[in-house]
Design a protein that fits this description.
Blueprint: H1 3-15, H2 19-43, H3 46-65, H4 73-94, H5 97-123
Helix pairs in contact: 2-3, 2-5, 3-4, 4-5
């Protein structure tokens, strides 16, 4: 398989996405990594667990850093991201499955909210969630 062709295809796909689609891609990855952390913790694969949690923190940090603070909701989202980062740190240090399982639905709910907003914006001819 020609790996360069696949990489070019992937790059083209990302470059042609709207800001809203890119945001949803980040949230999908965040939820996926949180799920991977949970599975790794169940298996006792602590290096994979820690890598997945670290990636979650990286994504949440990126989401927080890219907020446009001219919108009032940005302050609320920033506080929510701060909470997620704090919880992910606690989850990683304590290898706390219970806390991880309570955080995962929050991440999925936020992703779903942005997905609904993206659909609404798309139906109105706009796609500017970020």
């Amino acid at each position: 398989m020609d790996r360069r062709g696949y990489q070019q295809y992937k790059q083209q796909s990302v470059n042609s996405m709207t800001p809203g689609e890119l945001l949803l891609l980040l949230y999908d990855e965040l939820v996926k990594r949180a799920t991977m952390a949970s599975i790794s913790l169940d298996k006792g694969d602590f290096p994979s667990f820690e890598m997945a949690v670290d990636r979650c923190v990286d994504i949440v940090t990126y989401l927080d850093e890219t907020l446009d603070h001219k919108y009032p909701i940005s302050g609320e989202l920033s506080r929510l991201y701060e909470y997620f980062t704090y919880q992910l740190g606690r989850i990683k240090i304590g290898r706390n499955k219970k806390e991880l399982e309570s955080l995962r639905p929050m991440l999925a709910d936020l992703r779903d909210a942005f997905h609904s907003a993206e659909k609404d914006a798309g139906s109105q001819g706009k796609s500017d969630l970020v």
